[in-house]
UniProtKB/TrEMBL annotation:
It comes from Romeriopsis navalis LEGE 11480. PANTHER family: GLYCOSYLTRANSFERASE (PTHR43630:SF2), POLY-BETA-1,6-N-ACETYL-D-GLUCOSAMINE SYNTHASE (PTHR43630). Pfam families: Glycos_transf_2. SUPFAM superfamilies: Nucleotide-diphospho-sugar transferases. Residues 10-150 form the Glycosyltransferase 2-like domain. This is Glycosyltransferase family 2 protein.
């Protein structure tokens, strides 16, 4: 049991069936003054585990429209602290990071802080391949920050939680030095299933970008901005490029030095290339079939007639 004094930060942990990750996550949050696990009707031991660590469990039911889980939490949870920290179940806050956060919020010089993640994949830290640094605005004054709306909430099979949306905050931000850890105890089946959902989201973001629908109320793209703004700027170019799966592999494994991460780096590059292919296929589906191939709203298939039949086999009409 951690006997160090509590830090006046309220933590939001979005969860659904996370019994494998929650113990390590919640153990790392023992310095927090307040912990909310925002659950989506878990069927495993997530609720029991959360309560055993002293977290308050709040149920969230997604109605299929905005807001999703994190923004709903920011709007509705009864925080007793000014500062809020967003932590996913597969993330860990180190003692060094807690100490830095305590010092910075006491100084109270800005509205929020970016945290850098160390992502572990197949038991290894992915130091290359574009995975580090990985800045996320996670610590901020809860009255000043909300997740952007990228207009993807109505896309099926993306889940009820914000995927890669970023926080838009009203005030100055800074960057913390200590890293948070991303260590997922789930297996590769879960990684692939999760990225199958993510590719639905990404395909809609690609389509919105092509149609110029992601500009209002979001973090815009700028080559001379911060890391998120540069990424958004480059994505506007990326969505127009051909052969994106191949380019993604070359980018991650060669240009961004993913090969230096050994076998894990190679596997990650191959999987992320496959992920890019899935996004492309789903983007094609969205553009041509509205996201769902439904014969009643797409191609009418002509019934065969005697003139188009030879020996009982339907023949294409000229």
């Amino acid at each position: 049991m951690n006997t160090l004094p509590k830090i006046p930060i309220s933590v939001i942990v979005p969860a659904k069936n996370e019994e494998s990750n929650l113990p390590a996550c919640l153990e790392s949050l023992s310095r927090a003054d307040e912990i909310f696990v925002v659950d989506s009707q878990s069927s495993d031991r997530s609720i029991e585990i959360s309560e055993s660590y002293g977290a308050q469990v709040v149920q969230f039911e997604f109605n299929g429209s905005w807001p999703k889980k994190k923004n709903w939490s920011l709007e509705n949870l009864p925080f007793r602290n000014e500062w809020v920290l967003i932590v996913d179940c597969d993330e860990r806050i180190t003692e060094e990071l807690w100490a830095e956060m305590a010092e910075r919020i006491e100084q109270n010089e800005c509205a929020g802080y970016y945290l850098n993640r160390r992502i572990f994949f197949l038991g290894q830290w992915l130091e290359h391949g574009g995975k580090y640094p990985d800045w996320n605005l996670r610590l901020f004054k809860h009255k000043l920050g909300r997740y952007e709306n990228l207009k993807t909430e109505n896309i099926q099979n993306t889940g009820d939680n914000e995927v890669h949306e970023h926080v838009v905050i009203d005030g100055p931000v800074e960057y913390l030095k200590e890293d948070m850890l991303h260590i997922d105890f789930r297996d590769m089946f879960q990684w692939i299933a999760r990225h199958n959902r993510y590719s639905n989201w990404e395909a809609q973001v690609y389509l919105n970008t092509l149609n110029g629908k992601n500009d209002d109320g979001t973090i815009g793209g700028s080559f001379f901005g911060n890391a998120v703004q540069r990424k958004r700027f480059l994505k506007r170019i990326w969505v127009h490029l051909p052969f994106k799966p191949l380019l993604r592999f070359i980018l991650v494994y060669i240009i961004q030095l993913g090969f230096l991460d050994g076998k894990a780096g190679y596997i990650y590059a191959r999987l992320i290339s496959q992920y890019e292919y899935q996004i492309g296929v789903k983007l094609f589906e969205l553009k041509n079939f509205g996201g769902t191939f439904n014969s009643s709203q797409q191609v009418a298939i002509a019934k065969p007639t005697p003139e188009t039949m030879i020996a009982g086999v339907p023949q294409p009409e000229s």
